[in-house]
């Protein structure tokens, strides 16, 4: 989807909420769609702060990301680091994610076999599937190799990620990991 179309859709979305496309909201939208990385609100704020242009407050970044999320312009991903990371999704094919518990790396992948199995499972239960997301948590190739050599994981971006990784080998801890990561 072209940038002009995205801007038009966002303006329509904002008008439906009695809001305007301000210079700050436009700057946030443009920056979010410039990157092909997964980013947190704080990372987006830091990018905007370091680049020339009108001042954008941290609160405006958070509020605008909430609008972009509500309008389906971006999706949020709980990558286990205590904050959501975002990616723009307009004009992009559906994909799933592999999340490294040690270094935080996020890999995207598509597999039609998995998609077909999910649709089949929904159909068997008489469930009308609207959307889904799949996040596989584990260790990337580099971190798995370090673990195999007995090395302590390095490069973790937060202490909550290291705690998640330490608990990952214990069954039944998914819920605990999510709630602990938010408290750190």
Descriptive account of the structure:
This protein has 8 helices and 6 strands; from the N terminus they run ααβααββββαβααα. The protein has 2 domains: 1-92, Arc Repressor Mutant, subunit A (Orthogonal Bundle); 94-184, 2-Layer Sandwich (Dna Ligase, domain 1), CATH 3.30.1490. It has 184 residues and is an alpha+beta fold. 20% of the residues are buried. It has helices at 3-16, 23-34, 41-50, 58-70, 112-124, 141-148, 159-167, 174-183, and strands at 39-40, 74-78, 84-88, 96-100, 106-109, 135-138. The protein has a 3-stranded antiparallel beta sheet with strand order 1-3-2. It has a 3-stranded mixed beta sheet with strand order 5-4-6, with no helix packed on it. Strand 2 (74-78) and strand 3 form a beta hairpin.
The biggest beta sheet is recorded as:
3 strands, antiparallel
**CATH domain class name of the largest domain:** Mainly Alpha
Helix proportion range: 40-55%
What is the beta-strand fraction?
5-15%
**Averaged pLDDT, please?**
82
Q: From the coordinates shown, what is the CATH architecture of the largest domain?
A: Orthogonal Bundle
CATH topology of the largest domain: Arc Repressor Mutant, subunit A
- In the sheet with the most strands, the strands line up as 1-3-2
Low-confidence stretches: 156-184
Question: How many H/I helices?
Answer: 8
Order of helices and strands: HHEHHEEEEHEHHH
Please provide the count of β strands: 6
Q: How far apart, in Å, are the first and last alpha carbons?
A: 38 Å
**Large-scale geometry:** flat
Q: What Rg, in angstroms, do the CA atoms define?
A: 19 Å
Total discrete domains? 2
Corresponding CATH superfamily of the largest domain: Winged helix-like DNA-binding domain superfamily/Winged helix DNA-binding domain
Counting helices, strands and paired strands, the structural category is: alpha+beta
């Amino acid at each position: 989807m072209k940038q002009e179309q995205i801007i038009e859709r966002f303006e329509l979305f904002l008008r439906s909420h009695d809001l305007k496309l301000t210079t700050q909201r436009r700057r946030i939208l443009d920056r979010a769609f410039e990157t092909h990385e997964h980013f947190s609100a704080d990372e987006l704020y830091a990018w905007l702060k370091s680049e020339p242009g009108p001042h954008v407050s941290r609160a405006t970044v958070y509020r605008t990301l909430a609008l972009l999320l509500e309008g389906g312009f971006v999706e949020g991903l709980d990558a286990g680091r205590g904050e959501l990371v975002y990616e723009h999704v307009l004009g992009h094919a559906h994909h799933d994610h592999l999340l490294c518990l040690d270094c935080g790396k996020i890999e995207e992948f598509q597999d039609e076999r998995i998609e077909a199995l999910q649709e089949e499972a929904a159909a068997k239960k008489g469930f009308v599937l609207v959307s889904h997301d799949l996040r596989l948590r584990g260790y990337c190739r580099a971190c798995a190799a370090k673990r195999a050599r007995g090395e302590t994981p390095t490069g973790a971006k937060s202490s909550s990620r290291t705690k998640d990784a330490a608990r990952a080998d214990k069954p039944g801890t998914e819920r605990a990991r999510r709630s602990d990561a938010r408290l750190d």
